[in-house]
Design brief:
alpha+beta; seven-stranded antiparallel sheet; 16 strands; elongated
């Protein structure tokens, strides 16, 4: 499996100028190749083969007066820029055909020199690691690297990134084998939220750190100072970098916290179950700032990546499972509840539930059912395998059947089993 290891690098003043020139040349080559592809498609609907634009925008362009300065930088970085464009087109066509999963990918767009984030990539021919710990880049020289940890294997490529705050990073790609941990018998369900970041099915609570909320005063002062500076002035550029550094500190602190939490969860549990939250939809509601500050998508992504590396299992249950409406003790559907109700008592068995803890237990039960039933085994000892209901089209009849509804049969560990023809009630 491929992993990225990122390190802070400290180029000298001269090396920064060379990097800026290389950034610009790689951007120009990328834009020239993109314009060449667009012109060919507009002329006769023809597609240029992969790698073909390199001769026109690099080799032949160096012989012209308009692009003669391309010869002053590493050709490896320019060829990597062409390969990045080929990858962008391949991702676009794979997204159209359905070969690529996830969100739709659009056509490649031209790069701007005004972008605050710049990057360029070197293959094996464009860099080497010195014995003194420095990183040698073609046509740039030896760059000092802050090695926070050792590389597990020889890198296949390195990407030099200049972030909006003015920091330089070297991101190495290494190929390693998965390091599976010893198997455990512990499984947990996690209910994510805003008041408390996460509630586990075993009762453990992770408080929400709210990194952005805590830094709002400093960010507001820096943003106001930026708005008072004249556009195009050097003072405005200084103020912009100050704002970028403040945002970078919040992002780095959040990422460090997420890495620590996900690593601990992966090491202590064999299986982890989450709910498929509609983060994009929640980001358009009133608590959008808090949703972005929580970083639920990053939390889920880190868990999934580390589970694949260390031999753990991460299960995602459907977002329409009524985890907050079902009693985890008896499995009776108690109905929807407003968000201000944090504790409730089951009308069937009289059990008193904490809203988040009850949801976490239901997530655990639903995750176990999805995972273990695929192999034909029961969810728990002495418990029958619940029958998976057929999908029901609700349409405009969302409220139909609410009166006189028959009680649902309790499935494994309290998860209700939908009867045939019964309406699906959202969480």
């Amino acid at each position: 499996m491929h992993l990225r290891y990122s390190y802070r690098v400290y180029p000298t003043v001269g090396q920064r100028q060379l990097l800026a020139r290389t950034f610009g040349c790689a951007r120009v080559v990328y834009n020239d190749a993109l314009a060449l592809r667009k012109a060919a498609w507009k002329a006769d609907r023809s597609r240029i083969p992969t790698g073909a634009p390199a001769k026109a925008v690099i080799t032949d362009a160096k012989k012209t007066d308009a692009r003669s300065w391309l010869g002053s930088v590493s050709v490896d970085a320019l060829q990597s820029s062409i390969r990045d464009l080929d990858t962008a087109y391949r991702n676009f066509f794979d997204s159209l055909s359905g070969k690529r999963a996830g969100r739709p990918v659009g056509l490649p767009v031209f790069k701007s020199r005004k972008d605050n984030r710049q990057s360029l990539r070197f293959s094996r021919n464009g860099f080497r690691l010195r014995g003194n710990g420095k990183l040698n880049l073609a046509r740039i020289g030896d760059v000092r690297v802050k090695w926070s940890r050792a590389l597990p294997a020889d890198p296949s490529s390195v990407t030099i990134v200049l972030d909006p705050s003015g920091r330089y990073f070297a991101s190495f790609v290494v190929d390693i084998e998965p390091d599976h941990l010893a198997e455990l018998d512990t499984e947990i369900g996690i209910d994510l939220g805003l008041t408390t970041y996460a509630v586990m099915s075993d009762g453990t609570v992770i408080d929400n750190p709210r990194f952005l909320r805590k830094a709002e005063r400093k960010l507001k002062a820096a943003q106001r100072a930026l708005s008072r500076r004249a556009k195009g002035s050097k003072n405005r550029e200084k103020a912009r970098r100050k704002v970028a550094r403040a945002h970078a500190k919040v992002a780095d602190t959040r990422m460090d916290w997420l890495h620590k939490q996900t690593t601990r969860l992966i090491r202590e549990n064999q299986a982890i179950y989450l709910e498929d939250l509609n983060v994009r939809g929640l980001a358009r509601t009133r608590p959008a700032k808090s949703v972005h500050d929580a970083g639920w998508s990053t939390f889920r992504r880190l868990l999934t990546e580390k589970a694949a590396r260390y031999g753990r299992h991460v299960g995602i249950i459907g977002r329409y499972e009524p985890t907050s409406q079902v009693c985890s003790a008896c499995g009776v559907l108690d109905g929807p509840k407003p968000l201000n109700i944090r504790e409730w008592t089951c009308g069937a068995c009289g059990a008193c539930h904490d809203r988040d803890l009850n949801a976490a237990r239901n997530i655990l039960a639903a995750g176990r059912a999805d995972r273990l039933n695929a192999c034909g085994g029961p969810v728990g000892p002495g418990v029958a395998i619940p029958r998976r209901a057929r999908p029901v089209e609700t349409g405009t009849h969302r409220n139909a059947g609410r009166t006189g509804r028959k009680p649902r049969a309790a499935g494994a560990t309290g998860i209700p089993v939908l009867q045939r023809g019964e309406d699906v009630t959202r969480r």
